[in-house]
Amino acid sequence: MERGFKPNPKNSRRAFSFVDLLMIMAALAGITFLVLPVIARRHARSSKISCTNNLKQVGLAYRQWAIDNGDKFPMSVSVTNGGTMELAENGIVWLTFAVMSNELNTPKILFCPKETNPKRVIATTFAQFVAVGQTGAPFAGNTNVSYFVGLDADETRPDTILSGDDNFLVSGAEPKSGVLLLWTNSQVAWTKDRHVNQGNLALADGSVLGLTTPMLKKTLVKTGAATNRLAMP
What is the pLDDT along the chain (233 residues), one digit of tens a residue? Predict the structure, then answer.
């Protein structure tokens, strides 16, 4: 009489169960939960670094322009003498950067990588028109700019504000295009959508500061001006 076949437990394969699937899915979800914030922080940090580099190039362009114009920035030189004083004081920001087009080389650096305003468009050329058959956007207005112009910036006063991110909240509201007046006691803060409650400022000495809201307020005081005038795009 033949003996009944008995499977060897060591050679048998356990079926892949629904419980196993749930355990794997839970493990993957846990890994995703841990990894995604790290990736997001790295992306935010990378974008902030790119914005800082943009403003460093902007600051350098200002200083190069000033060398050829009596050590004055464009917003301190009248239009009749090749500057943009009257225009900037009326909130026409883009033309201040346009007169420095030779120093800036490309308008792309005037657009923050974390810009969230859907009405703004990155320009690819300082020309105000794009030839038929060519791609890209011309530099033709405030909508091509993410950075403000500091109307009171002065090379002889290194702590004055030259430019920077325009994502402010003043008394809880976002300022409109035009000239923004900030006093030392103004209720000013950064919005959270661009650099997560932080922002960058370029100073007249060419330095760029990454600032939290409390640091921003201290920087406004440090300029020594009772009123800081910023032309907002």
Answer: 455 555 555 554 556 677 767 777 777 777 766 654 544 444 445 555 899 999 999 999 999 999 999 999 999 999 999 999 999 999 999 999 999 999 999 999 999 999 989 999 999 999 877 766 667 799 999 999 999 999 999 999 999 999 999 999 999 999 999 999 999 899 999 999 899 999 999 999 999 999 999 999 999 999 999 999 999 99
C-alpha pair distances (Å), 37 with each of 42, 43, 133, 144, 210: 9, 10, 42, 31, 21
In a domain, 13, yes or no: no
DSSP state of 81: G
Residue 119 resides in a domain: yes
What is the tally of structural domains in the chain? 1
Q: Give domain status of residue 10, yes or no.
A: no
Asked if residue 170 lies in contact with residue 188, where contact means CB atoms within 8 angstroms, the answer is yes
Exposed/middle/buried for residue 9 (C-beta within 10 Å: 0-12, 13-18, 19+): exposed
A 10 A CB-CB count for 105 gives 12
pTM of the model: 0.79
Whether 141 is covered by a domain: the verdict is yes
For 19, 92, 109, 119, 152, the CA distances from 129, given in Å and listed in that order, are 63, 19, 19, 19, 32
Question: Cα dihedral angle (154, 160, 163, 167), rounded to 10 degrees?
Answer: -150
Domain holding 42, by residue range, is 18-232
